[in-house]
Write a structure and sequence with these properties.
heterotrimer, A alpha/beta (151), B alpha/beta (339), C alpha/beta (335), A: 151 residues, alpha/beta, Rossmann fold, four-stranded parallel sheet, 15% strand, globular, B: 339 residues, 34% helix
């Protein structure tokens, strides 16, 4: 981890690497990510994880704010529908996510910049594979210019 | 044949009767404004002032915007003591306005038993900008409705110009699916069928058919001219109930207050999202916008998605659960990323 | 003051000459079809057939969004403002007069607003007299007029054959002197034609009752008309944002990881949050108080404090208010 930090603190000449912010629900997805780590499954270091109690906690303002602050892509992951620790948090979230995705696409923002998935506590491999995919897609898209705000 | 004169006199009769018999303490309608192509909202409390009420092609404001404020719960015990009891309100509603009231009822923002809904079947209201543009460089000295429902304008050189209604009605009216208020206590005017049921869908499809960057360019056209005055939000009946808007919050501050392109984009994206399933397409936002922007660009899409994905049409059933307060085990999963 | 004339055929040359010296904004049709002050070159400048621009030129002096300073690692830096001279061509007399009101706010106090001062120093205003006032115009009732050059450096009046240019300030005199090769001496008929057009325009303006407004408003503070009209107000901000004399602003610090910027943005007294205290108390809690405040500020406090109305009768608030509030009605009713 500290290697990654100092690599970033190095100045300009480094090739651009996408920054992906991941909101993971505490009970399933965060545990799944932890399992990936414990199992020594490698996944790209471009990801920054923010733990939330439930995918239902996600306010689309978080996702847009992450993009505004310079994230190149955002990933949200929760428990599989039916398995939510709070019973229905992810079911409520599912509608929000579907609509939000449609909204962004309609506004002309690349759909790969905000992605949603379900990862359970036992799916370390799945988590790593999804992170690979999201980071790769973000790399192909290039830096987020449409929503980033420079101060 | 226009029914406006009969509707106008029925409205005046109704309002004065309701106020005189104390069936309502406040009657919301429209009165003449100081400039042509417009009316002003009228807050009537005295039965003998009912003659001020008008009904014409310029009654475009959505009066439902005033209802949340009238029924706002007191903030604390002291305010509750000082505050008078909630009024009983009679209100004139077109089809779109009535749908806003339904949406407010779904959210328990207004009490049904305190409302007396006077519905009027609406043939479409004039967009004053379209009317002004239609007159070109001539200034309008006064405008009224002719027997056919078209607008007759007297212009600065003394001549009269007839503007055909369908050429100058608001875009929201061209896309209106329910011009006759479904929810009402009293209905005036001959019911009007929803015209051009697919008009909104066609506009959405037209934008969807363009590649991503062209869609972004269209959104940026809007964003580039937005001055962040918040008129769209303040005119919206569904936004009117929130004590502090997410977009005004300072702790945390989600978006800046200025015209930075990113802040403008987030303002419109978040507002459209917050209105998903709640926006009834009344067009009050676009009408209020001083820059004449197509403020409904994103909410048109949200209304369509809410219907296509969840079979929900905003403003239809007062006892329906708001679409984002509900879920089904079979909700669409198409958006989920798989490895 | 100097009067010169420029024939129609030389107008393009005049604009081109100004563009050599600085950034020129002239009326043109934007993408929306409405006429606005657009940066030249932008196609055919439009010098007639527009009432007024949707947005007032105040944004050139008090930008909607302005970064005041940037900070990082404990150090702050002010951005350098553009140094190029700016020419605003085609500004209406009401909007030019509004600058004199804004000068009172930003230049008369101590400290002076350095940002406003800078923009003001760099700008030359070439106003264009109105020949067709709109129904919402009432400049003559608030100390202005369709041919009044106050606030402008040069006042242009349209003639059949070109423009009559009347210098209003030393800067205006200098400008006309520097363009001498393009200009001609006007004839007595030219001046007469200009004065007649202005008089005709003045005759078309319906009066608004701004007379003795300070006293009448003082006496009407508790009148019921404030609630009656104010309850319609949506707090939408349109009036303040479009008004050429409204100047209230908010300052925010936007910080990310210890670095960021301080930004000034337009604010509006009609917003419910405008006077909200940290305690939760709001001295202007309902639209009634805020509508009253608007009128009081423009027609009483400004008169008492600055000796002038903070309203130039441009009519934008009346034209654009989504609920058709008209301050002329309030001014009439307070008597």
């Amino acid at each position: 981890m500290s290697q990654t930090l100092s690599a970033e603190q190095g100045t300009a000449a480094k090739a651009w690497e996408p920054k992906v912010v991941a909101f993971l629900c505490n009970w399933c997805s965060y545990a799944g990510a932890d399992l990936a780590g414990v199992s020594r499954i490698q996944y790209p270091h471009n990801i920054r994880i923010i733990r939330v109690p439930c995918s239902g906690r996600i306010n689309p303002a978080f996702l847009l704010r992450a993009l505004q602050n310079g994230a190149d892509a955002v990933l949200v992951s929760g428990c599989h529908p039916g398995d939510c620790h709070y019973i229905s948090g992810n079911l409520a979230a599912r509608r929000k996510f579907a609509l939000f995705r449609e909204l962004l696409q309609h506004a002309g923002i690349e759909p790969e910049r905000v992605q949603f998935t379900w990862v359970s506590a036992s799916e370390g491999g799945r988590f790593a594979a999804i992170v690979e995919k999201v980071v790769e897609q973000a790399r192909k898209l290039g830096p987020n210019r449409k929503l980033v705000k420079s101060l | 044949m226009t029914e406006s004169p009969q509707i106008e006199s029925r409205l005046r009769e109704t309002a004065s009767g309701l106020l005189r018999e104390k069936k309502v303490s406040l009657f919301l309608g429209y009165e003449k404004a100081t400039l042509p192509f417009r009316t002003a909202p009228l807050f009537l409390t005295a039965a003998d002032e009912a003659e001020r009420l008008v009904w014409n092609p310029f009654c475009s404001a959505n009066l439902a915007v005033y209802l949340p404020r009238l029924f706002k719960a007191p903030a604390d015990a002291r305010e509750a003591k000082a505050a008078p009891a909630p009024p009983t309100v009679g209100v004139v509603l077109k089809g779109c306005d009535a749908r806003s009231v339904v949406a407010l009822l779904q959210e328990r923002q207004v009490p049904r038993e305190k409302l007396l809904l006077v519905g009027v079947a609406c043939p479409g209201m004039v967009d004053r900008r379209k009317a002004e543009r239609a007159l070109g460089e001539h200034a309008c000295l006064g405008a009224g409705e002719d027997a056919r429902g078209n607008v007759r304008a007297v212009v600065d050189d003394g001549t009269e110009v007839t503007l055909r209604r369908e050429q100058i009605v608001a875009d929201a009216c061209l896309e209106c699916r329910a011009p006759t208020p479904a929810l009402h206590d009293l209905l005036l005017g001959t019911p009007v069928a929803g015209k051009q049921a697919d008009a909104a869908r066609r506009r959405v499809a037209e934008l969807e058919s363009k590649p991503l960057d062209a869609r972004w360019a269209r959104f940026q056209e809007l964003a580039a001219r937005c001055i962040r005055c918040n008129a769209c939000r303040q005119a919206c009946p569904m936004c009117a109930g929130c004590k502090t808007c997410l977009l005004d919050q300072t702790r945390p501050r989600w978006i800046g207050a200025g015209t930075d392109a990113s802040d403008v984009a987030l303002y419109h994206l978040l507002r459209a999202f917050h209105l998903a399933g709640r926006c009834t397409g009344c067009g009050a936002c676009a009408r209020a916008c001083p820059m004449g922007l197509d403020v409904r660009l994103l909410s048109r899409k949200m209304s369509q998605e809410v219907e296509d994905l969840y079979g929900f049409r905003p403003g239809e059933a007062a006892d329906a659960t708001p679409v984002l307060s509900a879920f089904s085990l079979d909700d669409s999963q198409d958006f989920v990323t798989e490895p | 003051m100097t009067e010169k004339k420029i024939p129609q055929a030389s107008l393009d040359k005049l604009l081109a000459r100004l563009q050599e010296r600085g950034t020129v904004y002239a009326p043109g049709r934007g993408a929306s079809g409405d006429v606005a002050l657009l940066e030249m070159p932008q196609g055919e400048p439009v010098l007639q057939d527009y009432g007024n621009f949707a947005l007032s030129p105040k944004a050139f002096f008090l930008p909607q969004t302005q970064t005041l300073l940037r900070f990082r690692d404990g150090k702050a830096e002010e951005p350098s403002p553009p140094d190029r001279p700016v020419f605003l061509v085609g500004v209406r007399p009401c909007d030019a007069a509004a600058l004199l009101a804004l000068d009172k706010v930003f230049l008369d106090g101590d400290p002076r607003d350095p940002y406003y001062e800078h923009f003001r120093a760099k700008a030359t205003i070439i106003a264009l007299a109105c020949t067709q006032p709109m129904a919402s115009c009432f400049c003559t009732s608030v100390g202005g007029g369709p041919g009044d050059g106050a606030g402008a450096d040069v006042l242009a009046v349209g003639l059949d054959t070109g423009l009559l240019l009347r210098a209003q300030t030393t800067r205006g005199e200098e400008l006309l002197a520097s363009l001498a090769d393009l200009l001609a001496e006007p004839t007595a008929q030219d001046s007469q034609e200009a004065d007649e057009r202005i008089r005709a325009a003045e005759g078309q303006l319906a009066p608004a009752r701004a007379d003795d407004s300070a006293r009448r408003l003082r006496e009407a503070y508790d009148a019921p008309l404030w609630a009656a009209a104010g309850q319609k107000c949506l707090g939408c901000g349109t009036c303040s944002f479009l008004c050429p004399t409204c100047h209230c602003f908010d300052i925010t610090d936007e910080v990310r990881n210890g670095a960021g910027r301080r930004v000034r943005t337009w604010d509006c007294c009609a917003y419910p949050l405008f006077t909200l205290h940290a305690s939760g108390h709001n001295p202007r809690p309902t639209p009634k108080e805020r509508w009253r405040q608007r009128l009081m500020h423009k027609f009483r406090y400004a008169v008492e404090n600055h000796g002038r109305f903070f309203c130039v009768g441009c009519g934008r608030c009346i034209r654009n208010c989504p609920v058709s509030l008209d301050l002329r009605t309030a001014l009439k009713e307070i008597s």
